[in-house]
From TrEMBL:
Residues 147-310 form the Endoplasmic reticulum vesicle transporter C-terminal domain. Plays a role in transport between endoplasmic reticulum and Golgi. It is found in: Endoplasmic reticulum membrane; Endoplasmic reticulum-Golgi intermediate compartment membrane; Golgi apparatus membrane. It comes from Vulpes vulpes (Red fox). The chain crosses the membrane at residues 61-80, 288-309. The gene is ERGIC1. It comes from the Eukaryota. Belongs to the ERGIC family. Residues 47-136 form the Endoplasmic reticulum vesicle transporter N-terminal domain. This is Endoplasmic reticulum-Golgi intermediate compartment protein. It is a multi-pass membrane protein. Keywords: Endoplasmic reticulum, ER-Golgi transport, Golgi apparatus, Membrane, Transmembrane, Transmembrane helix, Transport.
Length: 329
């Protein structure tokens, strides 16, 4: 039956073509032969890769309707997922060997905040040493000593710079006018960071690895060694602006040191070395062309698979109907 309908549709449209422009040319083209115009019309129609099937030759089914609805919902879900990914800023990281902050003059800014609840402020000092020959005892620039625990303790806050070479800085009583007999070096580290402060939601690094370190229950006469491996870190936002910071790993030990003259005055040591590897975080957003390509692939692929599934179900259904009709006869 459908073959007869298709034949009638073809004859009907051929009749319309014969009765249309090919039989009644416009005034401006009246001299042109009718056959040549029809050939040009057929050539133009031959470029149409989206051939149309007449509506009366198609057959809707309940299965096709269900598959179409599921197909549209699936496309909508994938579209919203891709749209979310397109809007969201992605942070990618890479590793390379280089000094990222060459304009720093070979210096690294350090921020230290530490509390010693059982050591008076007049005894607390900061000493800095490194392999370039720097040896500074009692560093006082950009630092504060705040009494705590009713004046029995001290909170030291300092901002200073170190050279980009292996070295150490330590909190001790070395700069005090008179050395105490039994200095209590129990402490709490509130903050130790290097470089700029990075507060980025998508970056979770060890920028303040010692923050919250509590040594209040340790031996009061013990020294503390924190061995730091500093890793240069660069963060670049979408505008290309870069911020330089440093992450670090830490290992620590606690000990009571002695020499031939007796027990050595305890201190809190931060021994550091720099890693040659730099970590770079870069903000990126998915390009528009990739988003459009993905959406086209989702729509085309989903409709193709759904069409194959619907065709298989329809073919199987028709075959089953024929089998049932054969059994009835």
């Amino acid at each position: 039956m459908w073959k007869a309908k298709w034949k009638m549709w073809i004859q009907h449209h051929h009749f319309r073509l014969d009765q249309g422009i090919c039989s009644h040319p416009a005034a401006g083209v009246a001299r042109r032969p009718r056959q040549a115009m029809c050939q040009e019309e057929e050539k133009r129609m031959g470029f149409d890769i989206y051939r149309k099937v007449p509506k009366d030759l198609t057959q809707p089914t309940y299965t096709g309707a269900i598959i179409s609805i599921c197909c549209c919902l699936f496309i909508l879900f994938l579209f919203l997922s891709e749209l979310t990914g397109f809007i969201t800023t992605e942070v990618v990281n890479e590793l390379y060997v280089d000094d990222p902050d060459k304009d720093s003059g070979g210096k690294i800014d350090v921020s230290l905040n530490i509390s010693l609840p059982n050591l008076h402020c007049e005894l607390v000092g900061l000493d800095i040493q490194d392999e370039m020959g720097r040896h500074e005892v009692g560093h006082i620039d950009n630092s504060m000593r705040i009494p705590v625990n009713n004046g029995a303790g001290c909170r030291f806050e300092g901002h200073f710079s170190i050279n980009k070479v292996p070295g150490n800085f330590h909190v001790s009583t070395h700069s005090a006018t008179a050395q105490p007999q039994n200095p209590d070096m129990t402490h709490v580290i509130h903050k130790l960071s290097f470089g700029d402060t990075l507060q980025v939601q998508n970056v979770h690094g060890a920028f303040n690895a010692l923050g919250g370190a509590d040594r209040l229950t340790s031996n009061p006469l013990a020294s503390h060694d924190y061995i730091l491996k500093i890793v240069p870190t660069v963060y670049e936002d979408k505008s290309g602006k870069q911020r330089y910071s440093y992450q670090y790993t830490v290992a620590n030990k606690e000990y009571v040191a002695y020499s031939h003259t007796g027990r050595i005055i305890p201190a809190i040591w931060f021994r550091y070395d720099l890693s040659p590897i730099t970590v770079k975080y870069t903000e990126r957003r998915q390009p528009l062309y990739r988003f459009i390509t993905t959406i086209c692939a989702i729509i085309g692929g989903t409709f193709t698979v759904a069409g194959i599934l619907d065709s298989c179900i329809f073919t199987a259904s028709e075959a089953w109907k024929k089998i049932q009709l054969g059994k009835m006869h």
